[in-house]
Amino acid sequence: MKTKFLIPILSISLSTAFVACNNSPKSEQTHEHSAEDHAGHAHAGGHDHSHGTEQATTAPSTAAPATPNTVKAAALAIPEFNFYKVKSGISFSKSDIPAGKNTVFVLFDPSCGHCQHETTALAKNYSKVKDINIYYVSMNDPALMANFFSSFGKELEGKPNVEMLYDRNQDFIQKFHVPAKFPANYVYGADGALKTYWEGEKNIDEVIAAFTK
């Protein structure tokens, strides 16, 4: 049964474990992988989890702690999960995903400049992705997520195929993947199999092409 939850005042236990953005000299390069490229592959330890200095809202860089039970290779099929809709608090699971469409998960941080830029660009091209299931997922305080679309992607606000989801139980890093950069985009086909994923911002035309392929 789907139930509402009480939003904690500060439910950001893993905010120190992830970056909002990676603005090192290599930040303009995205890490894109196909399902074939990544099958059986695990990232090496010691990801660069530094915050961007140009973003006034980001915190100082913090090394990610060693966290057991995390997934270092992207899930090759959509795993079972339990997220919560930010607006209503109603639970959302794999069984709630509409069938017959590509499904995209965007793991992001509301204060990440690259996440904001990608969202703004995607919103301006909404007509091209209106037939794709798009789920924005974050472990941040839902209060910080609530106005993300209205601030950076108004055209995505209230759309039936787009949902803002709160990862209260850290399901994403335990079942999907632990990315090195935000935003991290994961594209699954209508059959639930991983098509491709990448970490970090890239050209919106490439993003749309990957979402709709």
Binned, the helix content reads 10-25%
List how many beta strands DSSP finds: 8
The multimeric state of the shown protein is: single chain
Query: Into how many domains do the coordinates divide?
Result: 1
* CATH topology-level name: Glutaredoxin
Largest sheet: 8 strands, mixed
CATH superfamily membership, which one? Answer: Glutaredoxin
Mean pLDDT: 79
Low-confidence stretches: 1-20, 23-29, 39-68
CATH C-level class: Alpha Beta
Shape: globular
Task: Indicate the CATH architecture.
Answer: 3-Layer(aba) Sandwich
Count the DSSP helices. Answer: 7
Which H/E pattern describes the elements? EHEEEHHEHHEHEEH
Organism: Sphingobacterium humi
Biased composition (Low complexity): 56-66
Protein name: Redoxin domain-containing protein
Biased composition (Basic and acidic residues): 28-52
Can you describe this structure?
This is Redoxin domain-containing protein. With 213 residues, this protein is an alpha+beta fold. The protein has helices at 35-38, 113-124, 126-129, 142-145, 148-152, 171-176, 204-212, and strands spanning 31-34, 82-85, 91-93, 103-107, 133-138, 162-166, 184-188, 194-199. The chain has an eight-stranded mixed β-sheet with strand order 1-8-7-4-5-6-2-3.
